[in-house]
Amino acid sequence: MEKTLRFGPIAVPLSQAFFASKHAFGLVNLKPIRPGHVLVVSRRPARRFAELTPDEVADLFVQGQRVSRTIERLHRAEALTLCIQDGAAAGQTVPHVHLHVIPRRPGDFADNDDVYRELDATGRQPRVDNPECTPRTPADMAAEALVLRAELGGWDDSSVC
Amino acid sequence: MEKTLRFGPIAVPLSQAFFASKHAFGLVNLKPIRPGHVLVVSRRPARRFAELTPDEVADLFVQGQRVSRTIERLHRAEALTLCIQDGAAAGQTVPHVHLHVIPRRPGDFADNDDVYRELDATGRQPRVDNPECTPRTPADMAAEALVLRAELGGWDDSSVC
Question: Could you tell me the pTM of the whole model?
Answer without folding.
Answer: 0.89
